[in-house]
Every structure is written in C-alpha cells, then in structure tokens.
Amino acid sequence: MDILAKLKETFQKVSTSALNNVMQTKSDSVIGIDIGTSAIKVVQIKKREGRAVLETYGAIALGPYADLPAGKVTNLDNEKLLPAITELLKASGVNTKETAFAIPSAASLIFIVDIPDRLSEKEYDSVIQTEARKFIPVPIAEVTLDWWVIPERDSETSGPEGLDETTSTPTSHKKEALVVAIHNDTLTRYKELVTSLELVDPVFEIEVFSSIRANFGHELSPVLIFDMGASKTKLSVIEHGVVRTFHVVNRGSHDISNSLATSLAIPFEKAEELKRSQGLTGIGGDQKAAEIMKASLDYVFMEANSVVLDYERKQNKIISKVVLTGGGVLLKGFVEEAKKNFSCDVVIGNPFAKIEAPVFLSKALESAGPEFGVALGIALRKLQ
Q1: How many domains does the structure of the chain reveal?
Q2: What is the domain range of residue 157?
Q3: Closest CA to 232 of 95, 105, 97
Q4: Rounded to an integer, what is the distance from CA 51 to the centroid of its chain?
Q5: Global pTM?
Q6: What percentage of the chain exceeds 90 in pLDDT?
C-alpha cells in the first residue's frame, strides 16, 4: 500500500538519529516473520530498558514470485519463498538472526478438551492425547501437540472444596486444557527455511496467538478478535487471555478483489487498485463497486456474528468488544461497515502501541499496524 511505502521511506530517513544507534546494536534484537498467502511481513524489535523498541519492518508481495499480480493468493514452496524472504530482510535492513515464525492457522488446529479434575500432571499428557484424537482428522503421529491447563477462576468453582452448594455433595468438576496441533510437515518446512536463511534459535507459534498478543489488552469481558487476511478471516473469542473459541472463514480481502474483477469485467490488477483507492465508501468513485465489495463482506460478517451469538448463548456471557486486525481491515470504510454489523463496541487494532517508536510516526504506524500485528506479536513472544 502507498502508506506503507511512504512510512518505510520516512522511517529510513530518520535512521541518522538516535534510533540509528539502536538499529546498529544487534544484541537483544529479534525479528518476527509472518508468511501469508499474498505477502510476507517482518518486524524487528529489541529490548531497551525493559521496553520493546521498533527497529525496522517491511512487507513484500508474493504474487510476482508466482508470476501473478501483487495481491493474488499464492501457495509457494520453499524454493520460491527463500528469495522473497531474503529480499525482504535485506530491503528492511534486518540485522539480526534471532527469529520467530508465525505458523498459519490453516496448518493448525486449536481446541479445548475436558480433563478429569483429580488427575496428576504426569497423567495429563496421555489423557489429552486421547481426547485430541476426537478433533484431529489425521493420525496423531503426524502432528505435534502442545497444551496448557486453563487456570480456574474463583467464580467458576461450584462451591468450597468442590462441593455442590445446594446438596453439599462432591461434584464431578472437570478442568479444561487448551490444545494446539501443528502438522509435522509444516514444522519441517519452516525449520528448513530457518536453516536455508541461516537464522538461529527459532521460535514457532500459531498466528492467532501472535495476533492476540499484539492486539489484546486486559479486558475482563470476552472480546472477539476479527483478523482478516488475504485468503482467510480468523475469528477468536478471548476471555481472560484464553482462546475460548477459534473459527476460520475461508474468505478474505483477496475475495473482494476477485468479486470486483468478475462483476465489473476488469483485470484483477485494476480491481485491486480500485479496492485500495475507493474502499467501501463509494465517495468520489463508483458506487456500484462499493456495493459489490460490501456484498462480498456480508458472508464474513454473517459468520462472525454467528460465532458471537453461539458463544454468548453457550456461555451466557456478552462479548463486549470486537477488535479488527489484519491487512483486510485497512480497507476504507471497513470500520464503519463493521460497526453496522456488530451490536457491541468495534475498534481497529493498534499493535504498534505496545512498543516504542518515534512519536511523529505514531499516526502512520497506527494506520499501518493491523497488517503487521502477527509479525509484531511473534516478535514480542521471541523477545520475552
């Protein structure tokens, strides 16, 4: 996007300031890499006096590496990803090898399982693996599992010492574990990238957790994180910092461009340009194009509302806020359209607010932030 190019140019111009001294210091610097279906994003940060500081960042479109227009969805193998990542790291001025990669949600599963309350920690693993088989559609040996027992809050207990408050008899209370599964082939692919790029000490994390880290505050009520990428929209209900519901909609910003190209009988490149320049407002442009884009988004908003209503019905709790993130939500008029579709507070994520950066860049970084949320979130994980 033009704003990203201008922001990058401005950022490079201030490299002669005190910020340049920070960038030249390699110790404690880390990079977060987010490989999407239409672009790769990278963010480099470092720790300074207990705070995370922005050093550099960048993005590169993947379409040209697949002989496609920029903005097109791709599915590149490592052979074609390597030159793209190499060029991005060089152009962005990355100067550290300490790396963290975000794993696409499409290559992973996230779910919650119940486990008996009185199990010892040594017994958790076998029970969770048994329960996980109900959710994973491939042999358990083909995936890598990780899990975390969700801490209980006082309000969730049924009574003192696990007794039913009405009968004073022992309850059959169960604990919950958040389980993530990543296909081994995906991990192998990313490890091969690390080796080929000569990066060190890699950290891998499913992108939804990176997005949450970059966008989530300390809200006490459940929050929906609405993360729209090029090919998919990820919907996560977060409560007390825990993923309670995770749902993927197989539509994203790329589908909006496709709808425009098909409906208006124009090339994809022209549709992408129209989408970015006009957006959903229709002001000073083609009102028909705006209506086509809104119609393309209707299905995504419908799915998001279904997730919200289902959660509220099952948990008897109200989702207090929707946080918009991902490159797709940068579309002009998107926030206003989202507010029409949700009955709660709607805000756009501001990931760069979590780190230090030059004050005069704050507005520009706020505008560009949603696209870099995952890359920044995984970098923060590495920095920790």
Answers
A1: 3
A2: 107-182
A3: 105
A4: 22
A5: 0.85
A6: 68
3-state helix, strand and coil shares in percent for the chain, rounded to the nearest 5:
45, 25, 25
The amino acid occupying position 359 is V
Tell me if 115 is assigned to some domain: yes
Q: What residue type is 54 in one-letter code? A: L
Residue 233's domain is classified under what CATH number?
Answer: 3.30.420.40
Residue 327 vs residues 23, 29, 81, 123, 170: alpha-carbon distances, Å = 26, 25, 20, 42, 50
CATH code for the domain in which residue 122 is found: 3.30.1490.300
Closest CA to 37 of 231, 194, 228, 183: 231
CB 326 within 8 Å of CB 304: no
Q: Which tokens is 363 given? A: 């507005």
Return the number of other C-beta atoms located less than 10 Å from residue 120's C-beta: 6
Write the pLDDT tens digit of every residue in 230-283: 999 999 999 988 999 999 999 999 999 999 999 999 999 999 999 999 899 876
Strands (E), 207-355: 223-228, 233-239, 242-249, 321-325, 345-348
**What's the pLDDT tens digit per position in 10-32?**
333 333 232 233 333 334 899 99
Tokens of 51: 């705070």
